[in-house]
Amino acid sequence: MGGLLRYLFGPGKREEHVRPRVVAAWEGAGPLSALQPPQLSGGRYDVRGLTAYLEQPVRAGVRPPAKPVWHCSIRTHPTDRILSDPQWGRVAAEVIAAAGLAPHGDVDAVRWVAVRHNDDHVHVVATLVRQDGRTVWPWQDKRKTQAACRDLEERYGLYRVAPPGGGVRRWPSPAELNKAARLDAAASAGRPGQRAARARRAGRRVAPREQLRRRVREVAAIATDEHDFFARLAEAGVELKLRHSTRTPGQVSGYAVGLPEHRTAAGDIVWYGGGRLGPDLTLPRLRSRWSTGTPPPGTAGGHAARLAAAASVPPEVSRRAAETVRDATAAMRAASSPAVAAAIGYAAADLLTVTAHAWEGEAGGPLTDAAEAFDRAAHELRGRVPAARVSRAGHLRSMARLIAVMGSLSRDRDTVAALHLVLTLAALAESLADLREAQHRLAQARAARHAAGQLRAWTSPPTGAGPLSPATAGVRPPGPDPLTGRRGRQR
């Protein structure tokens, strides 16, 4: 407890702790000014008195736990207003009551304090022994405190985030991001080439997990079955390892991918299974997507699929894709069930992903960023694939395959038609946002509206540059991401 309080009342790792103070405490603690540690002549705070107050029940308890300290930080979004000290105190009291440590009105509950040393967050510190000597064992405190935060966001009019577990991907860990930064720094110092210059211009470090997730999703969007999927992965420069069933040796039950340049210290490739990239990228989920996403051969989507398979690309492919998106948007708005609308949005995410890659390539840009936001908005919770067989969804995926062929063969430069396609995708993103708001999935609705804004603001690259040229790839400005509040593209 003493070490934690010394840190909270200290200068911080980067001198970011400004005027640390106690803004709330346990019931019956008395005035907060009496708990505030006195400041010494050198600017440090003497936390011995506060430490003794908090540890007193632990020392008098019956068989106290070996680790009696409970610590939680509560932070607002960068776009939120600044809360006052009394407001932060009420927030801390609600959170620790929801955790079951100090219920309202329980005078014998654990002792705790809330310490504030910045505008945007507080730290709640408690001991796990009640004042009557009994030990408290928190049960599902993370889930309960998160639920309390969702209620506080609505009560105080703060930025509302998605419930935990509702994501569609596995984010890189801090260790992965740090390793990517070290490798990119070494590559930039040793080889000041095009890739290093691109990374410096973008001001970001992309972890191998994110690179692989993007490539696998792009390939899955245009593949027709698992054999086509595996062949396209190999062509995309991705190392592939298949896992076979133990019951049926000839049957493929899973896969793993890796980058040739991403290896361990022993020289082995670091492998990522599809489920480690995103819950919807496992082989069973991809098979479900392919079995429900192909339109019947006699439909317009089937005709587009045949053109894509034959690499016969009509010159007006962007205009035809825009018409397909416009029809899909009308079908989404008139859909009789959320499953049908979700299937259309899920396929539209594939179309936008392929379109962004065709125009901006591996370097990425604003269209790629919009595709990332649209992808977050379109996918179902926990990676579930919409099971409904919807013809409009099949048409969208067929057009995605045509655009993939266009990007690799003809480099179609019909700028007006491409702009029209992007604007129709923006309209579909707005319809998807309305669907997510009706489902009370506010984070995904916010992502869809952000994607719509990005698409409406997009301008095509100069006519003289190729769609995969680094000069045509837009660079995100260094400001905070409106979806996450963080800077750059690291998550």
UniProtKB/TrEMBL annotation:
Looking at the record, the residues that make up the MobA/VirD2-like nuclease domain are 66-158
What are the transmembrane regions?
Answer: none
Concerning InterPro entries, the annotation shows: Endonuclease_MobA/VirD2 (IPR005094)
Record's Pfam families?
Answer: Relaxase (PF03432)
Biased composition (Basic residues) is annotated at 197-206
Q: Could you identify this protein by its name?
A: Relaxase
Q: Where is the composition biased (Low complexity)?
A: 184-196
Judging by the UniProt lineage, the source's domain of life is Bacteria
What residue spans carry the region label Disordered?
Answer: 184-209, 453-491
